[in-house]
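User: My advisor asked me to double-check a structure prediction for PTS system cellobiose-specific IIA component before group meeting. I don't want to rely on an old file, so could you generate it fresh from this sequence?
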Amino acid sequence: MDLEQAIFHLVLYGGNARGKAYEALDAAEEFRFEDAEKLLQEAEEELMKGHKWQTDLVQSTGDNPPSFLAIHAQDHLMTALAELNLVKRFVENYRVIDDLKKRVEKLENR
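Assistant: Sure, here is a fresh prediction for PTS system cellobiose-specific IIA component from the sequence you gave:
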């Protein structure tokens, strides 16, 4: 496996996942939950692609210590995963806010 290519793909897919996650958060802030769910799914797919490259990279290094760049690229991917998990929680919080907002509006219109 070409080390530089693997590093590139880890950063690429991690960045794509983070971008999709934040787009999902933007959609949730506007109470567009279908869009948010679609974007979260796309973020998951990007992470899975990155994870495949990460697995291949780890398996290809054998007993050789990984390079600093490989470790950094893996950290980039794992940070994207952590941010995606947080964004999912925010999206759920926006669902609760939307529900409460609708309930209050209903009470006010009585």
